[in-house]
Amino acid sequence: MTHSIKPNPGNPQVTAARDWVSTLAKYREPNQLRSAFELGVSIVPFIALWALSWMSLSISYWLAFAIAVLNAAFLLRLFAIQHDCGHGAFFSNRMLSDWTGRVIGVLTLTPYDVWRRTHSTHHNSAGNLDKRGMGDIHTLTVAEYLALTPLNRFWYRVYRHPVTLFGLGPGYLFLLQNRLPLGLTGLLKFWISAMATNLAILLALLAIYYFGGVMPLLLIFLPSTLLAATAGVWLFYVQHQFEETQWDPDKDWQLHEAALHGSSHYILPTVLQWFSANIGIHHVHHLYSRIPFYRLTEVLRDHDELANSNRMTIRESLANARLHLWDEKSRRLLSFAEARALYG
């Protein structure tokens, strides 16, 4: 359960969500040297560990696999940097940010321009019940679920099962779904983004196979990719799928309210916070997405209200995997069992 701080008449010291925007604007400017440093300490170890893992194949397959597992953490961090590039938050030069994101997108198997568009849609509609469908984890209300046929209820339960979301889902998303600009197929620029990324990925994999055979693909590429993808999907899930999140119909939906109260503040150990590039400070990120990830901690340092809002520990987050349905009456996310107990 997250610990929210929401404005109410009896607590005038709590800042309204929209009023944070002007306060957070002063944190938006990236430091070019810091950004270059963060990119360097992410991509250089990633390449070095890839090479070390490849060389280790001649010693032990298990050693090569173990190094690839470690390298998944750097791949996750590179995705987080790509994420900042998509928001124009990493370099002040937008072209430099975009091309950095496109290159990283080959490593993360993510067509950058397609992802940037769908992720922008997510930011502009998160928590809006009438604008679900792009860049989100599919979530039904209790009423919508009860109105489904038994077969469609079954398929929704299959989709929301942890084995699907965190086992099969990440591999499907990054290895298969990202190969096409789904939802954006009507525009040529997104086809170019997807196909150019696919071509670059294919050439890289063919080169790896030519020089090393199939084992680097099976023991290095796949493990690091799938583990990073799983971690990324889990982070995205807990950032918005928690009991006291916020969903509203379009007529009642407010961008900043949804950003602040519908996004969690995931408390992670220092090393995990580093590898995830502070993405757990998600409520601040959604309030002002132009803040570089390395400045999000400055916001928490300077503003206790945000530091203490929407806090969620790892232990608390594990329970979120059982929450599947938004109850518009109680305004909380329920498990299937809780919905059945309440509504039959």
Task: Give an overview in words.
- The chain has 344 residues and is mainly α.
- Helix content is 61%, strand content 3%.
- It has 17 helices and 5 strands.
- The strands form 2 sheets. Strands 1-4-5 form a 3-stranded mixed sheet. It has a two-stranded parallel ribbon with strand order 2-3.
- Helix 2 packs antiparallel against helix 3.
- The protein is globular, with a radius of gyration of 21 Å.
User: Helix share of residues?
Assistant: 55-70%
The number of E-state strands comes to 5
Distance between the termini: 24 Å
Radius of gyration: 21 Å
Structural class: mainly alpha
Question: Any idea what the shape is?
Answer: globular
The DSSP helix count reads 17
In N-to-C order, the SSE pattern is HHHHHEHHHHHHEHHHHEHEEH
In spatial order, strands of the major sheet run 1-4-5
Low-confidence stretches: 7-12
Largest sheet: 3 strands, mixed
Mean pLDDT: 94
How big a fraction of the residues is strand?
under 5%
What's the gist of this structure?
It is built from 17 helices and 5 strands.
